[in-house]
Write a structure and sequence with these properties.
This protein is an all-beta fold. Helix content is 0%, strand content 51%. It comes from Patellaria atrata CBS 101060.
Length: 336
């Protein structure tokens, strides 16, 4: 499952059905398409889709097929490309995607040999992916996470050694070298940049707690900050304003929890978001289509897709019992 804000008032939610079909539904957070539409993939999808809204106004979708290769297509001007493009390779997880503006769109993926590789496309032609996959480094694992920081600069996270999370920074001309951030639980971290010289990462660690570190482009905070809680899903981190991060994860009691960083400090306690009579059945997905609004998606009791919007300046919205989750239907796998 994946979601993306295409414009300030249009969202797309994607999911892989139990029979391997990639489908999507569009809406504005209040009104949604009546039915899910097929994204036109002529292969069986596995894992989770990765979707980004590129700066040239297109939706870019990436998917792993049953043979392990990366497939991609674009959505522009209300229609999909005629065919999906096979980018080849044999990959363990979906790629990380980084948009470098109007000139370049890049992918980072780890293959079955443990090599982290990249491949780039000139955004002026959505079907022209240059050359082949290029090996960046070796002996890594997990799902790579790539975060755009500013023009031509970005950060990359991956695992190396005994469950140690590593970070590298591309400064526009070269990689600066891996930083060892310490031992985590080999889960996909959540990372986001909400200011020019600020990068935050949250990962699941020992005991099921979530831990946080930040970076100012010169150095990382000395230790991991324990945010508490006891969780079973990987975290989701979203920038909802120029100085705000919203963090979501599913607790080991199947309750969805939320915590915000507003300015420089995390709120003290976790918000428990009411589920009504629904049992949540997946990790959440969250996007911010405009300032101070967050849209959250999660699977319900019957693996149907659920949606709810939050205005982040309303502190009581997170725990309001009288707001129901919207049932968007479908029956999906729990892959994220």
């Amino acid at each position: 499952m994946s979601a993306v804000s295409w414009t300030s008032d249009q969202l797309f939610a994607f999911g892989v059905t139990t029979d391997g079909q990639l489908v999507y539904k569009a809406g504005n957070g209040r009104v949604w398409d009546r039915e899910f539409k097929n994204a036109g993939a002529d292969f069986t999808a596995t894992g989770a889709p990765r979707v980004t809204s590129s700066r040239d106004g297109n939706l870019e979708v990436f998917m792993i097929g049953t043979e392990g290769s990366v497939w991609t297509t674009s959505y522009a001007d209300g229609q999909w490309e005629d065919e999906w493009l096979n980018l080849g390779g044999t990959w363990n997880t979906p790629p990380g995607v980084v948009d470098q503006g109007t000139s370049q769109l890049g992918l980072y993926a780890i293959n079955t040999n443990g090599d982290i590789c990249d491949r780039w496309r000139n955004n002026t032609n959505t079907t022209e992916w240059g050359g082949t996959w290029n090996t960046v480094d070796n002996d890594l694992y997990g799902e790579p996470v790539v975060i755009h920081l500013s023009d031509n600069t970005f950060s990359l996270f991956a695992y190396w050694g005994q469950n140690h999370l590593y970070h590298d920074y591309y400064n526009g001309t070269a990689w600066e070298g891996w930083d060892d951030l310490g031992e985590m639980w080999n889960n996909t971290p959540a990372a986001a940049s909400w200011a020019e010289n600020r990068l935050d990462v949250v990962a699941l660690g020992e005991g099921g707690s979530l831990y946080h570190k930040s970076w100012n482009r010169n150095s990382w905070t000395d230790t991991w900050e324990d945010l508490g809680g006891s969780f079973e899903s990987e975290p989701v981190l979203v920038v909802s304003d120029s100085d705000r991060l919203d963090l979501f994860a599913l607790g080991d009691d199947d309750q969805l929890r939320h915590k915000a960083l507003d300015g420089r400090d995390w709120q003290r306690d976790w918000d428990v978001i009411p589920s009504g009579n629904i049992t949540f059945n997946s990790a959440p997905v969250a996007v911010s289509a405009r300032n101070r609004r967050v849209d959250v998606f999660i699977l319900g009791t019957e693996n149907q897709l659920l949606h709810r919007s939050f205005e982040t300046n309303d502190d009581e919205a997170w725990t309001a019992e009288d707001v129901e989750w919207r049932d968007l239907g479908g029956e999906f796998t729990g892959n994220f």
